[in-house]
């Protein structure tokens, strides 16, 4: 079985900076979604901090991301 190479690499969620207590949230700059592999699961993640449910199907994770960015 060939490895999946179409996924966009994203940093681990625990490496993202945490907001400082009392700091004002940054204004939204749009949503950029991608998929991230976690073991045998795949999940959709967004630059706004949203993440979809863990899925065994990458296609379903991509659909979750598309639904998140849909108007």
From TrEMBL:
The lineage of its organism: Bacteria, Bacillati, Actinomycetota, Actinomycetes, Kitasatosporales. It comes from the Bacteria. Residues 9-28 have a biased composition (Pro residues). Residues 1-37, 50-71 are annotated as: Disordered. This is Uncharacterized protein. It comes from Streptomyces avidinii. Residues 56-71 have a biased composition (Basic and acidic residues).
């Amino acid at each position: 079985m060939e490895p999946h190479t179409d996924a966009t690499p994203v940093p681990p969620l625990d490496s993202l900076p945490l907001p400082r207590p009392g700091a004002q949230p940054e204004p939204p700059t749009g949503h950029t979604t991608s998929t991230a592999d976690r073991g045998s699961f795949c999940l959709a993640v967004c630059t706004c901090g949203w993440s979809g449910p863990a899925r065994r199907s990458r296609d379903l994770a991509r659909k979750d991301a598309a639904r998140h960015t849909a108007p």
